[in-house]
Amino acid sequence: MFSFRYLFILTFYYLVNNAISFRCDRRPYGSNTQASEPDGRFKLEVLGAENNAYIPEQLYVVQLRETDDESSFTSFMISAEGDVKQDPRNPRRMIPLYPGELRPQNSATAKFSDRCLYSVEHAMSSHKTSVEVYWQAPSSGNGCVTLRAMVAVNNEVWFEDGGPLTQKLCEDMRQPDDVAPQLNYKCGVCDEAKYELTFTGIWSRNTHPYLYPENDWVPKYSDLVGASHNADYILWMPGTLASDGFKDLAEHANSSSLEAEIREKIGDGVRTLIKGKGHGYRKMNIPTYSFFRADKENHLFSAAVAFHPSPDWFLGVTRFDLCSEDNTWLVERELNLYPWDAGTDSGISYESPNIQTFPQDAVARVEMSSYDRNSPFYEVDIKDMHPFGKFHIKLIRTYHRDCEEEEPTEEPPATEAPETSEESAEASEETNPEPAAPSRYQTQLDSAGDRR
Ligand SMILES: *[C@@H]1O[C@H](CO)[C@@H](O)[C@H](O)[C@H]1NC(C)=O
């Protein structure tokens, strides 16, 4: 669903490289006066942007309006200006960063400017007291963006920039919960750990009413699938292509080929396959439990749950580090989950027909604050949205291991045996369908099923 937009952005990058200087003549058409000193009669505001911070790729409404209940204006221009940074290949050259995209909200009131880059201007020079346009913030890493307005009362009296007509916003560095923290590449913990991972669904007609499927028996979650693994293994990751198995999970809520892909990597990047039962009608909010092991090498976990119906949307975390910076095992964490897009189906809403995305797009956040009314995320900010589910990760116990000790190469250490049976006993609904592989790694430690 992103390919068109990226093409668009790419085109802009080329434009930027050819038009290094941003400043352009913004005086009202036909005017031969200088701008007056801004007197506070008009104000530019990015609605919903708190603390002068923007969320990357979020769609914002930018409003230009009078502040005294009597002034009106005839023409305006709103422009976005990006930061500049030094060209790494030529330190004397500055490269402008992408300032996001300004676009008209309504073609009767605003249009793209022919004169200035990244600018919109009035469509008609009638008297108005306010106007709103869209600004889609740039992707992460583009620093700060300055939005500035020119506003004209008439051809003689006009204002430009200055305090009330300028707003500078910098990237909001706070991340949603399900974006994994920095990795601890040198995990120095010696003991092994046993964790419980619980998934609880939150998606419902009450929490997410807009476009929620009409029939209550239709919505369901796929099985919970994941792995504990080392730093090289990738189950899924924003910016990379989903595997075939992952695509099957995201599009069809079918986890079987993803499980096979994970199982193949056991002992080769993966420690434990995480597996929990998915719930549907009347059980949507019942937690699913699963257990897994982590160790010095395999101290990350990744997991995903698809929800149906949806184009290719799923919930999950990836490469979440359980080994804390002080080299102890994380004790407990709750993580709110928001939808991700697997990049394989271009549908816009839960019940859109299948539209294969070709070529396949990278995994990315589902487009939030969409300006398409057919999207469940129409003008919804991720910060105002209810999570669709949550993970609860909890350390159950640790197993003493000596750091110096040679890694055992054949049989699992005797101490692990009782754990295995304890875990099997915990399994209730789903019996372990996997033939035990003769490996020191347990192929499946989960005890999927309900515990009420
Ligand atoms: C899930 O996918 C596998 C193969 O990819 C297929 O054999 C199986 O029938 C599918 N399960 C369901 C419930 O559709």
TrEMBL record:
Disordered, as annotated region: 402-452
Gene Ontology biological-process annotations: cell adhesion
Coiled-coil positions: none
Extent of Acidic residues compositional bias: 419-432
One GO cellular component term: extracellular matrix
Superkingdom in the source lineage: Eukaryota
Residues of the Reelin domain: 9-182
Endpoints of the signal sequence: 1-21
Spondin domain residues: 183-376
Keywords, comma-separated and alphabetical: Disulfide bond, Repeat, Signal
Pfam families: Reeler, Spond_N
NCBIfam families: NF038123_dom (NF038123)
Protein name: Spondin-1
Originating species: Chrysodeixis includens (Soybean looper)
The organism's taxonomic lineage, starting at the top: Eukaryota, Metazoa, Ecdysozoa, Arthropoda, Hexapoda
